UniProtKB/TrEMBL annotation, chain A:
<keyword id="KW-0547">Nucleotide-binding</keyword>
<dbReference type="GO" id="GO:0016887">
    <property type="term" value="F:ATP hydrolysis activity"/>
</dbReference>
<dbReference type="InterPro" id="IPR017871">
    <property type="entry name" value="ABC_transporter-like_CS"/>
</dbReference>
<dbReference type="InterPro" id="IPR010230">
    <property type="entry name" value="FeS-cluster_ATPase_SufC"/>
</dbReference>
<protein>
    <submittedName>
        <fullName>Iron-regulated ABC transporter ATPase subunit SufC</fullName>
    </submittedName>
</protein>
<dbReference type="GO" id="GO:0005524">
    <property type="term" value="F:ATP binding"/>
</dbReference>
<dbReference type="InterPro" id="IPR027417">
    <property type="entry name" value="P-loop_NTPase"/>
</dbReference>
<dbReference type="InterPro" id="IPR003593">
    <property type="entry name" value="AAA+_ATPase"/>
</dbReference>
<dbReference type="InterPro" id="IPR003439">
    <property type="entry name" value="ABC_transporter-like_ATP-bd"/>
</dbReference>
TrEMBL record, chain B:
<dbReference type="Pfam" id="PF01458">
    <property type="entry name" value="SUFBD_core"/>
</dbReference>
<feature type="domain" description="SUF system FeS cluster assembly SufBD core">
    <location>
        <begin position="90"/>
        <end position="308"/>
    </location>
</feature>
<dbReference type="InterPro" id="IPR055346">
    <property type="entry name" value="Fe-S_cluster_assembly_SufBD"/>
</dbReference>
<dbReference type="InterPro" id="IPR000825">
    <property type="entry name" value="SUF_FeS_clus_asmbl_SufBD_core"/>
</dbReference>
<dbReference type="GO" id="GO:0016226">
    <property type="term" value="P:iron-sulfur cluster assembly"/>
</dbReference>
<protein>
    <recommendedName>
        <fullName>SUF system FeS cluster assembly SufBD core domain-containing protein</fullName>
    </recommendedName>
</protein>
<dbReference type="InterPro" id="IPR037284">
    <property type="entry name" value="SUF_FeS_clus_asmbl_SufBD_sf"/>
</dbReference>
Length: 249, 312
């Protein structure tokens, strides 16, 4: 049987700058694959490329979803096949209520929108539906609230492949616990998750992990090994001598 | 069907509430220069007189201390394809009185219709006037609306206007509103308009915060497509301590539409503050692509964003 997602030798250039340089990995249904790496190494770029965001079209390499090549599919087509992305900084919408926002995922699947489904999804992300359903998905929400509402919309959409770009950044501890629970929830309900993260804590929820540096996967394996990266925020690699990546903390 | 019934039907088709039989609700119905219905309630006087061909003079007076419970409904319009309606409106909200007016302007069959509104509005000390105006111009683009308002808000008074034209064509609208606000007074002017084809939208709003702690908000949200054009000129001046104002103009354009925003902010007191924000552009691509990643196609996603903006 084919893998849920298979990425082969993916290269992406934007305006002459090579950002992804031969990314290769695969992920199965019900599996959490974590991607870590320093700022600017290309993690978000990979997420956008997988989703098919404008300007992020690979020059070389293939992306397969359940065995089907998706390189030339548009965002909407990829979404309809079951792929979605939760942005690092989710967009905000003036005048669109949480209710309307959540209903979109259901409507696009042709599923009935019920109050119960909406409430249920919000309860799962520890957001009180009675307080939030009529609020706007705009600047008035905190970063953590916005991110959890994003997860609630994914619950309703029930995608097969979820790309989570730093779901843990900019959220408080309570939200962090909830996000960890949600990752387990998605996993148990059979979705595959590509988890881009900056936190050692989040790695614990992964089945596999990879370290990205300067657009390449320099190490891949079990999360406990990969998490060594967090000791020095660098994993010595073949390019050590000419390395310009700043070691962040 | 008589004229009155036809007007009420056009009004209901445009989304208006059927309140005309309710004696607790004041109303006024005008078709061109014909006064088809008029009803007042305690504390509120409504007068309408035809003063010349096509022209009606309307006077609304809310007596001191009266808080009118139900919104007053006004329905203005021109039913035939061609015609002209000019309304000279005089609104007086006396001391500590309060009223909300909901005006529906309907021109469902317009091919060549002119609607001219000349308003003088005076809000006395502590008075409160909310004016919601909803327009429906049909699908021919044959309406020209020319509206002028001269607004005066005395101390602690408040005026809120909310204009919307979200369905059908605009045709041509040309607004020119001026407001003077005394101490602790407030003015809020909101416009929500969706333009298409060769619609032309021209809004000129000026609010002068003359008194201490006066407040002003000028907020326009415009969505344009095809060859529609809009020009929003917002002027907010503040020349007293603690006077505060904000100008916000958001215009989303598609196709060959053209949008212009000209905010003028003039502050002449060190303790006054006025801010402005203007954003003109196409639909934000992150907003758009986020919705597309939930399975909406580009058109659906863009509609959600624009509808949200216009409902805000
Ligand atoms: N649209 C773009 N145009 C130009 N450079 C880009 C663009 N998107 C990303 N980059 C560059 O690609 C590199 C990787 O960025 P990103 O994928 O956001 O990193 P990460 O998510 O790992 O922090 C950065 O150097 C960034 O400046
Ligand atoms: Mg990133």
């Amino acid at each position: 049987m084919s893998k849920l997602l298979e990425v082969k030798n993916l290269h992406l250039k934007i305006e002459d700058t090579e950002i992804l340089k031969g990314i290769e990995f695969s992920l199965e249904k019900g599996e959490v694959f974590a991607l870590i790496g320093p700022n600017g190494c290309g993690k978000s770029t990979l997420a956008y490329t997988l989703m098919g965001i404008n300007k992020y079209h690979p020059q070389k390499g293939e992306m397969y979803f359940k065995g089907e090549k998706i390189n030339d599919l548009k965002i909407t087509e990829r979404a309809k096949k079951g792929i979605t992305l939760a942005w690092q900084e989710p967009a905000r919408y003036q005048g669109v209520t949480v209710r309307e926002f959540l209903a979109l995922g259901l409507k696009s699947k042709g599923e009935e929108v019920t109050e119960e489904k909406l409430r249920d999804a919000l309860n799962k992300v520890a957001i009180n539906p009675y307080q939030y359903l009529n609020r706007f998905v705009d600047k008035s929400l905190s970063g953590g609230e916005r991110k959890r509402i994003e997860l609630a919309s994914l619950i309703l959409m029930h995608p097969e492949l979820i790309i989570l770009d730093e779901p843990d950044s900019g959220v408080d501890v309570v939200a962090l616990n909830n996000i960890a629970e949600m990752i387990n929830y998605f996993k148990e309900s059979g979705s595959g998750i590509l988890l881009i993260t900056h936190s050692e804590e989040m790695l614990k929820y992964a089945d596999q992990a990879a370290l990205v540096c300067e657009g390449e996967i320099i190490r891949q394996g079990n999360p406990a090994d990969i998490s060594e990266y967090f000791k020095s925020f660098c994993y010595p690699c073949a390019k050590e001598e000419e390395c310009e990546t700043e070691v962040a903390s | 069907m008589n004229d009155y019934e036809m007007m009420i039907n056009a009004y209901k088709d445009a989304g208006g509430d059927d309140i005309f039989a309710d004696s607790e609700v004041a109303h006024l119905v005008l078709e061109r220069d014909k006064i088809l219905g008029m009803h007042a309630v305690e504390g509120l006087e409504v007068e309408a007189d035809k003063i010349s061909e096509d022209t009606v003079k309307v006077k609304v007076l809310v007596k001191a201390g009266y808080q009118i419970k139900n919104p007053v409904h006004m329905c203005f319009g021109v039913l035939p394809k061609e015609g002209r309606q000019k309304i000279d409106m005089n609104v007086e909200v006396q001391k500590n009185a309060k009223v909300e007016v909901v005006a529906d302007c309907v021109f469902p069959n317009a091919v060549k219709v002119e609607h001219i509104m000349d308003a003088v509005i005076n809000i006395d000390d502590g008075g409160n006037y909310i004016y919601k105006e909803h327009h429906f111009h049909g699908d021919n683009g044959g309406v020209e609306v020319i509206a002028k308002s001269d607004i005066n808000v005395e101390a602690n008074g408040k005026l809120v206007t909310k204009f919307d034209l979200l369905e059908g064509r605009v045709g041509k609208i040309d607004f020119d509103y001026k407001a003077n606000i005394a101490e602790h007074g407030t003015v809020e002017m909101l416009a929500r308009i969706s333009g298409q084809k060769n619609d032309l939208i021209k809004i000129r709003e000026a609010a002068h915060l003359n008194g201490e702690s006066a407040r002003g908000i000028l907020d326009s949200k415009i969505a344009l497509k095809d060859q529609a054009e809009a020009e929003i000129y917002n002027e907010l001046t503040a020349d007293a301590a603690e006077a505060m104002g904000h100008v916000d103009c958001t215009e989303i354009i598609k196709d060959q539409a053209i949008a212009r925003a000209i905010p003028i902010v003039d502050v002449r007191h060190p303790e006054a503050k006025v801010t402005h924000e203007a954003a003109i552009g196409s639909v934000d691509s992150t907003q758009l692509q986020t919705l597309m990643s939930r399975g909406l196609d580009e058109e659906e996603a863009s509609d959600v964003i624009i509808q949200g903006l216009l409902n805000d």
